[in-house]
Write a structure and sequence with these properties.
The complex is a heterodimer of chains A (173) and B (338). With 173 residues, chain A is an alpha/beta fold. In chain A, 29% of the residues lie in helices and 26% in strands. Chain A is built from 4 helices and 7 strands. In chain A, the strands form 2 sheets. Chain A has a 5-stranded parallel sheet. In chain A, strands 6-7 form a two-stranded antiparallel ribbon. In chain A, strand 1 (27-32), helix 2 (36-51) and strand 2 (57-60) form a beta-alpha-beta unit. The longest helix of chain A has 19 residues, at 3-21. The two termini of chain A are 21 Å apart. Chain B is of the alpha/beta class. The radius of gyration of chain B is 20 Å and the shape is globular. Chain B has helices at 16-32, 58-69, 82-85, 90-98, 114-119, 137-151, 169-179, 213-217, 240-247, 251-254, 277-280, 287-308, 331-334; strands spanning 47-52, 73-77, 104-109, 126-131, 158-162, 184-188, 207-210, 222-225, 262-264. Chain B has 13 helices and 9 strands. Chain B folds into 2 domains: 16-135 and 291-325, Rossmann fold, CATH 3.40.50; 137-290, Aspartate/ornithine carbamoyltransferase (Rossmann fold, 3-Layer(aba) Sandwich). In chain B, helix 2 crosses helix 12 and helix 6 (137-151) packs across helix 12 (287-308). Classes of the chains: A alpha/beta (173), B alpha/beta (338). Chains A and B meet through loops of A and helix 1 and helix 12 of B.
Chain lengths: 173, 338
């Protein structure tokens, strides 16, 4: 995907979220560190352009909720989550760049539920690459890509990587 | 950039980068203290041994809370434990606890260096919760975190430490940590508690000993109060009354320091002795923040040590000869240790 395609996709997904939300009063986006964060911010920005709707964006760091901590080397550096609004009764949309096994989303939900009781949690991803290991699906998908186990989906975003594209890379090389 | 720690025995050998890393990694855990649900599953199924050979209430409770909030279980050994009274050696006690397979060994002991000694014999991370008059690393870290949150930085500050510095492991940990960031120290108290040799304990760090509290407080950004151990006041001719006259931090003396100076105290406070109630409870006092930050810092320490040890027990910085199946009383094998 090129930069222009990413932008168009995010615009489309922002419209879908607003459309399906049935009212944005209790809507909030939660970007999952790292790349989910700029994506969530861009979707919120797109929403402002739609109805002048101002949807809050929170940041969630899932490191403490991972299921593979002792096996990660080098050790994952913790960063803070930053969710300044209350989560009770809110309609939350988790935002991440790639949905793969679903373990990150399982961890993210654990993190969210430590903060309170959301009314609803849905998931928005830029890329769904299949190979789920958890019963988890995204409600808002940028693009679905068939991948094999040896391939990696690399997402580069200007806020983090100073470039903008999505690539399918074969690890065998 | 990440740093790996095998144990946390002292702050003195750590670099400014490593210390900053520890403080930064404590921030997410400060966050968690504000959640309605403070329990994580991060260390679920792990066990933390809390071996307090010297009495402690708050540090033990703080480490215990930190372990529980990470989802871990604890093994609690306290100083009055009958096995210690029956003459069991330190190493035997450590090996015994270790045989129950904890994942981390937190210990406090009245002998300086005891945690280093135990760490040479255990194959799990060891945390020093206070050893003799040597160091109290988690206290040093929580003090620094409190200062950083209040002052926006821990560099280049004038830090005055008031009290019995000679016997204070807290003071030493503070000096070794903050000194690496360019803080300047003024140590003040009755002369038998503030020997001039203290000026040399951290090469490269500016430390001066003064004996008049008014002089010590001038220009202070941070005032760290040490508890007066009233047991020690029988030492060379100083009564409680004299101590109060000479060294008590009251509102009038606090005004000598900078107007935005903050006051720290490791606790427990002797209200009316080293510190007056109005200062202890006033806006410049950070005492309760220290305690809250203490849980966060200890969560970070346990998290980093327990998840950081690689599966083969290796660590790039520390080559530890792991002495398995050693009997504590086996003198010939002990002499092989460096």
């Amino acid at each position: 995907m090129s930069a222009a395609e990413i932008d168009r996709t995010l615009q489309r997904v922002a419209h879908e979220i607003v459309e399906k939300s049935g009212g944005t009063k209790h809507l909030a986006l939660i970007g999952i560190r790292r790349r989910g964060v700029p994506l969530a911010q861009r979707i919120a920005q797109a929403m402002r352009g739609i109805d002048g709707v101002d949807v809050p964006v929170g940041i969630l760091d899932i490191t403490l909720y991972r299921d593979d901590l002792s096996k990660v080397a080098p050790q994952a550096v913790l960063q803070s989550s930053d969710i300044t609004f209350g989560v009770d009764g809110m309609d939350l949309v988790l935002v991440d760049d790639v949905l793969y096994t679903g373990r990150t989303i399982r961890a993210a939900m654990n993190g969210l539920f430590d903060l309170g009781r959301p009314k609803r949690v849905s998931l928005c991803v830029l890329i769904d690459r299949g190979h789920r290991e958890m019963p988890i699906e995204a409600q808002f998908i940028g693009r679905t890509v068939q991948t094999s186990d040896t391939e990696i989906v690399e997402v580069r975003l200007r806020e983090i990587d100073n470039e903008e594209r999505v690539m399918l890379v074969d690890r065998k090389e | 950039m990440t740093h790996r720690f095998r144990d946390l025995l002292a702050l003195e050998p750590l670099s400014a980068d490593e210390l900053t890393f520890l403080l930064d990694q404590s921030k997410p855990f400060q966050e968690i203290q504000r959640h309605p649900l403070k329990k994580l599953a991060t260390l679920r199924g792990k066990t933390i041994a809390l071996a307090f050979f010297e009495n402690s209430t708050r540090t033990r409770i703080s480490f215990g809370t930190a372990a529980s909030r990470l989802g871990a279980d604890t093994m609690n050994l306290q100083a009055e434990a009958s096995s210690l009274k029956k003459g069991e050696t330190l190493l035997d006690t450590a090996f015994n606890l270790n045989a129950m397979k904890p994942d981390c060994f937190v210990m406090r002991h009245s002998a300086s260096g005891a945690p280093h000694y135990v760490a040479r014999h255990l194959d799990i991370p060891v945390v020093n919760a206070g050893d003799g008059t040597h160091e109290h690393p988690s206290q040093g870290l929580l003090d620094a975190l409190t200062i950083r949150d209040r002052k926006g930085k821990i560099s280049d500050l004038n830090v005055t430490i008031l009290g019995d510095i000679q016997h204070s492991r807290v003071a030493r940990s503070n000096i070794h940590l903050l000194g690496k960031f360019g803080c300047r120290f003024t140590l003040c108290g009755p002369s038998m508690w503030v020997p001039r040799e203290l000026e040399k304990i951290a090469p490269g760090t500016s430390i001066r000993c003064v004996y008049r509290v008014e002089e010590a407080l001038e220009g202070a950004d941070v005032i760290i109060m040490l508890r007066v151990q009233t047991e020690r006041l029988h030492e060379p001719s100083l009564s409680v009354g004299d101590y109060i006259l000479g060294y008590q931090l009251n509102a009038e003396r606090l005004r000598i320091a900078k107007p935005d100076a903050i006051v720290l105290h490791p606790g427990p406070m002797n209200r009316g002795i080293e510190i007056t109630p109005d200062v202890a409870d006033g806006p410049q006092s950070c005492v309760l923040e220290q305690v809250t930050n203490g849980v966060a810092v200890r969560m970070a320490i346990l998290y980093l040590l327990v998840t950081g040890a690689a599966e083969d027990g290796s660590h790039p910085a520390i080559e530890r000869p792991v002495l398995h199946n050693r009997r504590a009383t086996d003198k010939t094998s002990q002499s092989k240790d460096s």
